[in-house]
Amino acid sequence: MNTLKTTHRPTPALLSDAWASNFGQLVHEILQEPLHQSTITPRISLTEKHNGYELKATLPGISKENINLNIEDGILTLVAHKESTPLGDTEKVLINELHPENYKRSLRLPKNADTESTDATLENGILTVILSKRKESLPKQIEVK
Predict the structure, then answer these.
(1) Would 14 be classed as within a structural domain?
(2) Which residue stretches of the chain are H helix?
(3) How far apart are CA 101 and CA 95, in angstroms?
(4) Comparing 16 with 109, which gets the higher pLDDT?
(5) DSSP secondary structure, 24-62, as one string
(6) Exposure winner among 82, 103, 105, 108, fewest CB in 10 A?
(7) Residue 110: how many other CB atoms lie within 10 Å
């Protein structure tokens, strides 16, 4: 009976990921180079209400001053930035995983969303955006005479 022997060789991407996760922080500390900033796509929920829409996005640790909301051509774009935590002169860093983070998400709005009446609030790391529906798209009650 013949047996087949298989050899699993790690792929270059796997080796690169392993290197970055195990030695990236060490190299950063030795060379004192800033770590690569990545853009995070925040998780969202979009719900339709009777007279509008409610969008919620998770933005943990971000202040409202660092959030930019823009609507152009029916696309809502959310851009946010979280600064790194400043350290005092007498502090010695043992572990620091609190790096600056950038958030970005674009979303095509429903055609009947009224972009002129939009309200946004930030509470406990949750951004809530309320959009009304256009008046002409709301159901009308017609009185029978």
Answers:
(1) no
(2) 12-31
(3) 17
(4) 109
(5) HHHHHHHHTPPPPP-EE---EEEEE-SSEEEEEEE-TT-
(6) 108
(7) 14
**How do residues 69-102 score in pLDDT, each as one tens digit?**
999 999 999 999 988 777 777 778 788 777 788 9
CA distance 125 to 18: 32
Per-residue pLDDT tens for 6-15? Answer: 555 555 555 5
pLDDT for residue 120 is more than 90: yes
pLDDT digits (tens, 9 = 90+) for 12-34: 555 555 656 566 655 555 555 45
CA distance 53 to 17: 40
Burial class (CB in 10 A: 0-12, 13-18, 19+), 129: buried
How far apart are alpha carbons 72 and 108 in whole angstroms? 10
Domain coverage including residue 60: 37-86+93-136
Residue 105: give its domain's CATH number. 2.60.40.790
CA angle 97, 43, 41 (to 5 degrees): 60
